[in-house]
């Protein structure tokens, strides 16, 4: 099995929002990760990567849709 050592998986802290909370917040805002991805010219699954690893551009798009800053959602990534 080949593993890509260049991909760094983020280990969320208790301060970071749970992935389900991010998805629920997007739903409350009337959108979802797939729709946001397509609206910004990405493949449907692209923004989902931000839930698992640092991806500043995707983090900004998600945070803007929710109405907060990326630092509020993922404080461990911006410490």
UniProtKB/TrEMBL annotation:
- Gene Ontology MF terms: DNA binding
* InterPro entries noted in UniProt: Lambda_DNA-bd_dom_sf (IPR010982), Ner_HTH_dom (IPR038722)
Q: For this UniProt entry, which segments traverse the membrane?
A: none
Question: Record's superkingdom?
Answer: Bacteria
Its keywords, alphabetically, are:
DNA-binding, Transcription, Transcription regulation
Look up keyword Transcription and say if it applies: yes
Q: Does the keyword Transcription regulation apply?
A: yes
Q: Give the Ner winged helix-turn-helix DNA-binding domain ranges.
A: 16-78
User: What family is this protein classified in?
Assistant: Belongs to the ner transcriptional regulatory family.
- Its protein name is DNA-binding transcriptional regulator Nlp
């Amino acid at each position: 099995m080949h593993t890509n050592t260049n991909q760094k998986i983020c280990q969320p802290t208790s301060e970071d929002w749970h992935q389900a909370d991010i998805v629920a917040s997007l739903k409350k805002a009337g959108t979802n990760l797939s729709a946001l991805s397509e609206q910004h010219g990405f493949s449907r699954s692209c923004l989902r990567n931000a839930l698992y690893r640092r991806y500043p551009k995707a983090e900004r798009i998600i945070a803007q849709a929710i109405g907060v800053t990326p630092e509020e959602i993922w404080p461990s990534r911006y410490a």
